[in-house]
Amino acid sequence: MNIGVIGLGKLGCSMFAAFAAAGNNVFGFDIDKNVRNDLRKKIAPVLETGLQGEINLGFENFKILDNTSQVIEQSDVIYVIVPTPSLKDGTFDTKYLENVILNISDVDSSCENKLIVITSTVLPGDTRLKLISKIRLKNEKISKIKFCYSPEFIALGSVLNDLKNPDFLLVGEDIPHSADIHIEAMMTVIKNKNIPIRRMSIESAEMAKISINSYITSKISFANAIGIASDNIENCSSKDVLSAIGSDSRIGKKYLNKGLGFGGPCFPRDNRAIQQVINRAEGLEYYLPIQNETFNSKLPDYYVKKIDQFCINKKLENVVVVGLTYKDGSYLLEESQSYLISLKLSKNYKIFYFDPDVLNNNKDLGLEEFNLNSKVIGDILLFNCSRDQSKLKMVKKIIKEKNLNYFQLDIWE
Ligand SMILES: NC(=O)c1ccc[n+]([C@@H]2O[C@H](COP(=O)([O-])OP(=O)(O)OC[C@H]3O[C@@H](n4cnc5c(N)ncnc54)[C@H](O)[C@@H]3O)[C@@H](O)[C@H]2O)c1
Q: What is the pTM of this model?
C-alpha cells in the first residue's frame, strides 16, 4: 500500500517505521528539518524502544519528502500526527493540525480516493469543524479528500509493541466504509487480525478516545485511594483488597495497584479535556475528572510525608530514588510523580536518583545521579518507584560495592 505520514515525532515516527517494515511504500514529512535529515540517514530522530531496528528494517521502503503536498500526491492513506498541545482551559490547540491542512496545495493526482486519518488527540467536533471544513474550501480536486479520525492507544516506551498489539481499533468515519483503506493499512502492522473494529462517527471516536484515558485515570486514583485507606486499617492489606476487587471481571486487574499517581504526556491532559467536554452538557453536574486530578496532584505530598516520618525515625539523610521518569522504558519526566516527590524531598534530604531511562544529556534535573562516585555519608533510604526489577538490582549492586547500609521502601508494595 502507499501510505503517508505527516508528523514524525514520538508517535508518528514509530507508525511510519512500522508501516515501512511491514512492506508498504511509505512517504513521510516532518516540518523539522533535523527529523527529515536523520531519517534520510537511517537514524531514529526520537528515542523509542525498537524504533532504530524498525527503521533499519523498513529503510528500503520509505522516502522522506519535502512537503505535505508531495506526501498526499504519493499516498492513498495519509496519517497526520502533529502536536495538539493542551491549552490553559484543558482543551487542545489544533493550530498544528490546521497548518497541515492549510499547507496542502499542488496535488496533481485525483484525490477522490485519498483518505486523511487524523491520529492526533482532538476534542469532539475538532476534526469536522476545524479540519474538514477547511479542506472543503480548497480547489475542487483537494476538497474531495476524505477524512477519518482514528487514535492509537500507545504508551511511550512501548509504542511499537502497542501499535502491533492493540485491544481494538477505534475508527471514526464520515461516510460508511470510507475508512476501509485505513483499516487495511493498520492490518499490515497489527498482529492479531481478529481484533474488534469499532466504527462510528468521527465525533463518537473523538469522544471515546479521551473518555477511555480519563476512565483509566479514575481507576488509578480509585486504586490509590482504596489502597491507602486499606493500609490504614489494622490487619488490612491494600494488595489483598485490590487483588480481590480486580478479580471481579466487571472491573479487571489492569491499572488497579496502589502506587504512583498517573502522569506522562497523555493521561493527565485527556482527563482535563474530558471535564471541559462534560461541562458543555447543560444541566450535567459531573466533576469526577477534576476531582481525580486534584487527588492525583496531592498524592506526591502523601508520600513525601510518609518518607519524612520514616527518615526521621531511622535518622536518615540520604534518599536514593529508583525510577524517575513517568514510567519505566520512557525517558520523559513530564508529570512524573517520582520526579515530583524527589524534588519535594530535596528540600530536606540529600536526594540521588537512579534511572538508566533518564537521558544522559539531561543536566537540568536539579538532582544528582547515584553511581559509584556518589559521595554518601551515612545510611540510605532506597525509595523504589520502578517496577523494573533490573533497575533495583543495578542500584543494589552499587550500594554493595560502596559498602553502604540501606532501608527500602517500595511504592508498588
Ligand atoms: N506520544 C504519545 O504517547 C501519544 C499517544 C497518543 C496520542 N498522541 C497524540 O499524537 C499527537 C502527536 O504526539 P507526539 O507525542 O508524537 O508529538 P511530537 O511532538 O513528539 O511529534 C509531533 C511531530 O510533528 C511535527 N510537526 C509539527 N507541525 C507539523 C507540520 N505542519 N507538518 C509536519 N510535521 C509537523 C513536529 O516537528 C514533530 O516532530 C498529539 O496529538 C498527541 O496527543 C500521542
A: 0.93
